[in-house]
User: Fold these one by one.
Assistant:
Number 1:
Amino acid sequence: DAKKLVRSPSGLRMVPEHRAARSPFGLDEPPWVPDKECPRCMQCDTKFDFITRKHHCRRCGKCFCDKCCSKKVPLPRMCFVDPVRQCAECALVSQKETEFYDKQLKVLMNGATFFVTLGTSDKSELMVCRLSNNQRYLVLDGDSHYEIEIVQISTVQILTEGFTPGGGNTRAIGMILQYKVPGSEEVTQMKFIAGEDFSCNKKLSAAWLAAMHKATKLLYESRDQ
């Protein structure tokens, strides 16, 4: 997908040429709080003057003094080329998201193997599941082939085992995914279960499911924007 370099008041961004090609996990730049509406820092209430200058957080758009908005942190969800200035609260959120983009996104794209059951069928098919390189489709390959558009996914439920009443570690073993068929209101369900045989790497499947769980949270956040 072709991309273009654009400049905004917040910095340089590398964005898809067509909005329809944007990542489903992306966020739009927020409008900045107008300077005339923020005579004081929106965090510590310090009054702005000739010495104490105001800065806008690139993630939330609010107005802060340099002390409360000094960190420059990567913000891949808004496609910034370089790290950008963010308030302390937003910087923490962006730093946590960086792990998803640096590690978990690659796990999703590399894929994992599951037994996949479609709808109410009692038959499952061994399939390799992965996220497409443009992040817009969940691709399933086996004897059959499916491409599920990420934006059409309505719910994701991670299935676990190992929980005990007294507490203990749980392990992700699968998920139930529901999505809308494009062009209709029909909802289709798929069940994914990590394979038991030696050809399926359970550790890899568990890591893929954990990454999918994080991806789902980001997807919901993008929708709520």
Number 2:
Amino acid sequence: MLLAAYVGYLGLGAAVLQALERPAEVQTAQHLLREHWELLANHTCLQGPALQRLIEGIIQAYKSGITLQGNTTSLGRWDYSGSFFFSISAITTIGYGNLSPSTAVGRIFCIVFALFGIPLNLVLLNEIGQLMLLGVQHCARRLEDVFHWQNKASFLMKTSALVIGLLLFLLLPPLLFSDKEGWSYEEGFYYSFITLSTIGFGDYVIGMNPDRTYPSWYKNVISLWILFGMAWLALVIKFCINILE
């Protein structure tokens, strides 16, 4: 029954996503094809194979973090700040996919780094989660002593921890992303959940817009937000698991 529910849930998700996303995909593909043929028709000096090679080169360069800005190219994804953020996304298993090592030595190092970094990250997240739980339990005991509440104190503190976590990790960060990245609130909220749940699609990643200037503290603060936000969301998911079981 559990397996049937699991497969049914996946099937339902696939059907809904297909209904929602397939029309937009077809429309985007038709628009891209139309622009491709209009470009070739308006610029007869261009040849189809040459244009295709240029497009593939631009796509590959963009995946490596290099973008064209007039007659120059922009770098910066592999500076120390960008490399530190990549390290965070690697050992937290978020794996956005927008950036990856391109050298053989870099890939080998990434494997070794993640092999030891992932367990280290899990141990740290577990400790942070336990500290959060101890803090909630301590506050609940204090309320019981002061107001002589029993079940009410525990329920009140758990609800407060949930609300505070929602504010700090899911509801308020999109406002920062709207200011620094130019995203809508919905896009920022979507990025927040996709990141903290370690799904990490990579369609939205902070600090990657070459047209924007980011403060030096930005990625460091986001790294701390990811660390504590993952610990909080892990507790929420664990609570949901207990309900399902």
Number 3:
Amino acid sequence: LLFLWSITVSIFGIGGLLGSSGSRYLTVKFGKKKCLLCNNVLMIVAASIMGCSKIVQSFEMILIGRFMCGVSAGLCVPLHHQYVGEISPKKLRGFANSTSSFFWSLGKVVGQISGQRELLGSQSLWPMLMASCGFPALVQLVALPFFPESPPYLLMHTGDQEGCKKAIRQLWGEGQHQAEIDDIMKEKATMKNTKILSVLELVKEPAFRWQLYMIVILTATIQLCGINAV
């Protein structure tokens, strides 16, 4: 039983690792907006599976749902940052990206409060608690089609300059946005001369060794700060 509990908890992280590893390939091939839409569908399916686990008396459904949630979260973290940053005007880009951390923390707080036995953590309502992760995904699935694709993606990966201009006008309003388009073109020119490293190449690259050590140590020690125990 302890082993099953441990697997149920940790399989979320395994799914997150797989999801984040495949995010770059998917965003380049399909675009950030399409990936986010499909990711929302994945999260809704995962929430439905976990929500129905008690009805069909299957703990395996919780394992599958947790794994799918992990994959969805792993995809969402880099996707969300990139999409929000790329559709925001330059003067608001830093603020828009910083809201991600705020809402992740807010989500954890809401989850902790909702998980109390007096609320959704009771013996009869816990399936509803596990299925609640599908609600934000459903909201985004309904709202996101009204947003355009990321302008940098349209210009840099598909070469659709008119589509890029249309997306910029839809997002930032009418006006002169040639400076932003020139910046994207400069970034595109820079990327042609820059080698994109895979995860394995990054690990093997000596120039990034100390930065990698620092990131790994910081990320590992965050897990030891006591937040999970709390």
